[in-house]
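New to this. Help decode the following:
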Amino acid sequence: MILVDSSVWIDFFNGNETAQTDWLDSLLGNIPVIIGDFILTEVLQGFQSDKEFNIAKDLLLRLPFMPMGGQTLALESAMNYRLLRRKGVIVRKTINVMIGTFCIHYQLPLLHDDRDFDPMVKLLGLETIDT
């Protein structure tokens, strides 16, 4: 099972071919790809047309779903953010620390295309899919 970050889903739905979208395309139907509430929101909020929104929503809601928040993960995310900051790393988006922490907590590899996750690999042990 893997988690796919919104950075990859957005490219996927926009038809941008990248190493990550190629990976995603090969994974779908072969390996369980889960979706979480944070990623679902980030992906769907960007659609301008109702038709495209509904197509994407229908596809994403077919995937296994896991809630990504909660008190435990909020505390772990805050601690991870503070650790990264002490190491001189400023993550641009708090939501990315929460997504990375979710993956670390549940030992899920992350497929992404966002540099915010790179220090989490090195300093927190986040497992990613190498493309």
User: Anything to note?
Assistant: The chain has seven helices and four strands. The chain has a mean pLDDT of 96. Residues 54 and 71 are 31 Å apart (CA to CA).
